[in-house]
Design brief:
six-stranded antiparallel β-sheet; alpha+beta
């Protein structure tokens, strides 16, 4: 038999029910200035005492061997660590699998069973950056103007150009498991907590390594309060060992080995042009340039290793290389021109 559970109800001090009026007349005031308990409390105590006595009597009848089967008054269950007992919400909530624009929407793209649409790595990162620029607010119920849900899995669905909003439990079916060494921009790091999907499950887009030791990378992720791009320790800030690398099955093979070779600029094969190395530039050519500087012995200015975003460490490394060629003045300004590129990669 289940023991009864009682709820504590404390009336206002000026309760005007007949019972309170009666007890205020016949009982003395508390020396501490507190009003006597509501009659309901005394009644409840009587019921609890009766229930306890009944349980004890039942135990004596059944025998000591069965006494444990008679439950005591139920206690409240422990709540999720780090969350208030009256606000037991998931640590990292996410929405379910859904069509674009929500449950009322319709799936876009190829029908079920059709092959996945091809997409390049450059396009994946470009799509990811649109939400970073817009600072899309995090939500598990809202859908952005492009139809994708504004949580972590909706963000990856958008970047991969999937025809539906997926969740952490289904994204893996659109991808292949890879190793850490195989990670390239546009791949993902996925943690799906199958035991409790709403507790800890998360996914981020890999944007490229930020150091030669591969201990940190640029992560694009949808997380409160809004979409962000930042250097992140591998594999993630918490539960690192649970994040697994995946590669989207629809990524084009031509992009598998990094950026495609740039056409000749100023007569120099592979040189992408000065625009790729201006302040604020963020592209694979900056990473390629930085790694070459390190190989040539001009990487002393890097503190975390070459990355895709053009910065002062890149400029100073290029300047050191230019000066090593005997150049001075404007010819050694730290900005790679076609001749700097030709000599650096020859």
């Amino acid at each position: 038999m289940e023991a009864p559970v009682f709820e504590e109800i404390d009336p206002a001090s000026d309760c005007d029910c007949p019972g309170c009026r009666h007890w205020r007349r016949v009982l003395p005031h508390s020396p501490a200035g507190r009003a006597p308990a509501h009659p309901a409390a005394a009644h409840r105590a009587l019921i609890v005492a009766t229930a306890t006595a009944t349980a004890a009597a039942a135990a004596s009848v059944l025998g000591a061997g069965q006494a444990a089967a008679v439950p005591a008054i139920a206690a409240h269950a422990a709540h999720r660590p780090g969350v208030a007992a009256d606000d037991d919400v998931p640590d990292t909530p996410q929405g379910p699998r859904a069509p674009l624009h929500g449950p009322a929407g319709r799936p876009a793209g190829p029908p079920a069973g059709a092959g996945l649409a091809a997409i390049t790595r450059t396009e994946i990162i470009s799509r990811a950056k649109t939400w970073v620029t817009a600072k899309v607010p995090y939500s598990v119920t809202a859908y952005w103007s492009d139809g994708y849900r504004q949580d972590c899995s909706g963000y990856v669905s958008m970047a991969w150009k999937l025809p539906t909003n997926e969740w952490t439990g289904s994204l893996g079916t659109f991808a292949d498991r890879i190793t850490k060494e195989q990670l390239q921009p546009g791949d993902i790091l996925l943690f799906h907590n199958a035991a409790d999907p709403q507790a800890g499950s998360h996914v981020v887009i890999f944007g490229g390594w930020t150091d030669d030791t591969h201990t940190s990378y640029t992560a694009y992720e949808q997380t409160p309060p809004h979409t962000r791009e930042q250097s992140t320790p591998y594999a993630y800030w918490s539960d690192s060992a649970k994040y697994l690398p995946y590669r989207y099955k629809g990524v084009t093979a031509s992009a598998a080995n990094g950026p495609a070779a740039a056409p000749a600029s100023h007569g120099v094969a592979g040189y992408p042009g000065r625009a790729m190395f201006r302040p604020g530039a963020d592209n694979p050519y900056v990473t390629r340039l930085g790694r070459r500087l390190v190989e040539k012995g001009f990487g002393a200015h890097y503190t975390t290793g070459p990355g895709p975003r053009w910065g002062e460490a890149d400029r100073r490394g290029v300047e050191a290389f230019q000066r090593a060629q005997g150049w001075r003045g404007g010819a050694a300004d730290g900005h790679p021109g076609p001749e700097t590129w030709r000599r650096l990669f020859s």
